[in-house]
Specification:
about 290 residues; alpha/beta; 7 strands; binds zinc ion
Length: about 290
């Protein structure tokens, strides 16, 4: 990214945007989380596709981790914790996912998927992800606590498929999984274009843990950008062909530590500082 912003983009604004746009029926929304990319890195590394999307809308810095010394509690800067903050618009004291084990989410705080389905039972939803948990635990598909919420389509669980994606020490398998996830998302956008979908890409975080701030990590960010580019091309094609009105958000779940760039989970500024890219034009003053 070359653009810089220093506003704070609230998760509640995101939630509002998604539900508001979905109310207009023909609109489509895609929400993407890319794992563990600090704002300074996405601003430094060449990400022409993110830049292109931001040029039609906005790039903003944002934050995770709750409010430091505020009314809201601090929230660990860990993937699963942040996903649920992004999906429910609440911090950890409410959604109750404290780590990646995702023991006991509090489903009283509805995800964007449940809010959407409640309003538009016929609207189509989908998840594209290496993790199965994103569907089974966060969205809570088929659980009584979520009113037996059902997604219409899902492509996930590749992490468990060690035959198709044998785990190698270098961690390349996760890039191959992300490629598959992006391919699934592109195919689904082209074919059925769900009204609300969530895509998750993981490889960047793996490279961050392995190499910290490094050429390897930056290369992973570039690969992510290329995958986003394929998605954006599919969306643009649909907009042209069918006159659909697409809303896209791309964000990250946490930054990384200042010293090495390998770790996260704490409350330092770099771990808390995230970012969002969207093609949404109208954003409010709070942003
Ligand atoms: Zn991580």
């Amino acid at each position: 990214m070359r653009m810089k912003g220093n506003g704070i983009f609230s998760v509640t604004v995101l939630l509002f945007c998604l539900t508001a746009s979905a109310q207009k029926g023909a609109k489509k929304a895609l929400f993407i989380i890319v794992d563990g990319i600090p704002a300074d890195v996405v601003e430094k590394v060449a990400t022409p596709n993110l830049d292109q999307i931001a040029a039609t809308g906005h790039y903003r810095r944002a934050y995770v981790g709750g409010e430091k010394d505020g009314y809201s509690p601090q929230t660990p800067t860990i993937s699963a914790v942040s996903y649920n903050s992004l999906l429910t618009g609440t911090w950890v004291n409410k959604h109750n996912v404290w780590d990646n084990n995702i023991k006991e989410p509090n489903y009283n705080y509805w995800t964007i998927f449940r809010l959407y389905k409640e309003q538009y039972p016929k609207g189509k939803t989908a998840v594209f992800s290496s993790w199965t948990d994103n569907r089974t635990k966060f969205v809570g598909e088929g659980l009584p606590q979520t009113g037996n919420l059902q997604l219409d389509d899902h492509f996930d669980g590749y992490e468990l498929d060690t035959v198709r994606f044998p785990h190698d020490k270098a961690g390349d398998f996760m890039h191959r999984i992300d490629e598959q996830v992006a391919t699934d998302a592109v195919a689904t956008i082209k074919k059925s274009a769900p009204e609300l979908s969530w895509m998750y890409l993981e490889y960047t975080d793996d490279m961050g843990h392995m190499y910290g701030d490094s050429p390897q990590f930056y290369a992973a960010v570039e690969k992510m950008d290329q995958q986003i580019g394929r998605i954006w091309a599919a969306i643009q094609e649909r907009q042209k062909r069918f006159g659909e009105d697409w809303l896209i958000f791309i964000t990250t779940d946490h930054g990384r530590d200042e010293k090495t760039g390998r770790g996260h989970g704490g409350q330092s500024p770099r771990q808390r500082t995230t970012w969002m890219v969207t093609n949404l034009k109208r954003i409010n003053a709070y942003t």
